[in-house]
Amino acid sequence: MGATPTVASVAVVAVARTAVRPVDGELAGWNPVKLAGAVGREALERAGLDAGMLDEVVVGCADPVGACGADAARAIVLAAGWPVTVGGLVVDRGETSGLAAVQAAVAAIRSGEARTVLVVGLGLCSVVPPGASALNRTYGAPWGGVAERFADRGGLVPAPRLSERAARAAGMSRADLDAAAEESRRRRAASGPNAAGSAVMAESDAASPDFAGGASARSAVMAESDAAPSDFAGGASASSPIVAVAARPGAAAARGVYRGDPVATDFVRDWGDATALPPAFDDDGLLTAATFAPPADSVAAVLLQGRPRPGSLDTHRAGAAAAFGSTVSDTGASRDTEASRDTEASRATGASRDKEASQATGAHGDTGASRDTEASRATGASRDTEASRATGASRDTEASRATGASRDTEASRDTGASRDTEASQATGAHGDAGACGELTELATVAGMGRAAGDPFDPVGNVAAAVGQALGEAGVELVAVDDTAVVEHDAATVGLVAQALGVDESGMNRAGGAVATGDAGAAEELRLVADGLADRSGNLLLTISAGPTGSAAILWNAEI
C-alpha cells in the first residue's frame, strides 16, 4: 500500500486496552477523551517512552460526534497533558475505522512524516452509541443522494440484515449461528487476557493502590490518580494487554461494583438457551440476541514506531548524537551545544566521569531520528547510579539532577507529558537513539490492505483487502498462523472464511465480539492487542469488514 518506505519497518512497541464491558455498565461514566488518555499513557509506559517522543495521535472512530467529535485525537493530547506539539488525526471509515487508523499511522511513518505514533480505537458506546453520526439530523441528513441510487434494490439495508441474508444464501442455518456464538463465548471466556487479568490500575480516586472494591498492592498500579501518588506498588502485567481502569458505573453495572473499583476483565455474555430466543428481525430469521454482537464499551491503543534503514539519514543522525552527545535537528545542526540544552547527557568517561549531568533548561530541539535520546549511562564513578528511567531526554522532561558524582541520581520526572507518572525505565542502553534497535518490539507490520465493494456485501470485498496485505508481505494465506476477525454477528466469521476459501474453525481462536459485545474501533485494535499478547505463531492477520468496506493487516511477531 503506497510508495517505497523510508524506514526499514514499522514496529508495534506496546499495546494496551481497557476491558470490554456492556453499555451502561462499569465504564459508562467515563469521558472517551479522558479514558483514551489513561490508556495511551499506559501504552507509553509499557514501551518505556515519554509522551514528548510522540509525533501524532491517530484515532479510529466510526461516530466522531459529541464526546468523540471535534478532533478527539487532539483533545486526547491536550487533556492528557502531553506536549502541545503532538498532533491529532481522526479516521472515520465505518466498520474499519480502527484498522484504517493503524494504516494511516503506518503510512505516515513509512513516508517519513512521523516517527512515533499512538493509535487509539474509541468505542465508548454508552456515551456515543453506534449510528450517532447518522441519526443526528441537527445539521441535515447524511449520505444525501445515496438512497436514490439504490432505490431499485430496495434502498440500503442495515448491516445485520445484510449479514442474515448473506448467511442464508451461503447455506447457514440458525443452528449453525447458535453454535458459532456458543463457540465464540467459550473461547473468549478461556482466552489469555481474561484468564490472566491485569496488574495495572489506570485511574482511581484513591491516593493509595489499595482502595475499596478489592484492588490491592499485589494487583493494582495507578497510572493516573486524582491524588497523584508518587510511588506505586506492584507492576504492569507482562502477559495481559488489559489496563484495569476505575469503574464509572452506569445502571447496568454488575451488582457490588462502585466508583473507583478496578475493571480488569472482559464481560462475557450469558444468553441462556439460544434456541429459546426469538428471531431479531423476521419470524424465520437467523439472528437472535445471542448471535448478534451488541454495542459495548472499550478503548484500545497500539503504539507504533519506525525503524530507520541502515545507512539512512536518520541512522546517521543517531550516530552523530551518540558520538557527540548532542541532539541533531532536522537540518543537521546541533542546537544549543554550548549550554547542552535538551541534549543527550554526555557519557561520563575519563575526566568527565565525575561530572554532573547537565540540566535541561529549554525546549527540546530535535525532531529527527535522535529526538528525545536517552541520557547516556555514566561509567566509572557513576556506575552505581540508578538508570535514568526516561528512554530519551524528553522535551518535556527535566534531566535528572546529579547528586555528588552523579551517584544514585533520581529518575527524572516528566513535568508535562506524563505529569502523574514516573518516566518509564529504559529498555536498553540506548532505548531510542535513532537506530531504535533496543526497544522491545511485539511485531512489525508485514502487509496491509483495504477494499470497498457492493454496499450490499456484509464483508466489504474482504478477499481483495486480504490479498493486498498478503501480497505486500509476499506470503500465502496458508502461511498465516492466526486470523482474527471482528465479529459483528455470528455469521461474520463464516462469511469471511467463505470469501477467503478457508475453514472458519481456525479463525478467532480467542473468541470474538459476539461473546462480549462490539466496541467498534476499539474492538479492531483489541484484535491486535490480544493477538500479539497471546499469539499462537509468528504471523497474525487481523481483519475488519462490513458494508462500508474491509481492512486487513498482517503482523509479523517473529522478533
Explain what this protein looks like in three dimensions.
This protein has helices spanning 32-47, 72-79, 97-111, 132-135, 146-149, 159-169, 174-189, 192-196, 313-324, 462-473, 492-500, 513-516, 521-533, and strands at residues 7-17, 21-22, 56-60, 87-91, 116-124, 245-246, 262-263, 296-308, 443-451, 482-485, 539-546, 549-556. The protein is α+β, with helices and mostly antiparallel strands and 559 residues long. Helix 2 (72-79) links the parallel strand 3 and strand 4.
- Given the structure, what is the number of helices? 13
Q: How many beta-strand elements?
A: 12
- Give the overall form: globular
Task: Give the proportion of residues in helices.
Answer: 10-25%
Q: Structural class of the helix and strand makeup?
A: alpha+beta
Mean pLDDT: 77
% residues in beta strands: 5-15%
Low-confidence stretches: 196-200, 203-238, 315-438
Order of helices and strands: EEHEHEHEHHHHHEEEHEHEHHHEE
Q: Radius of gyration from the CA trace?
A: 24 Å
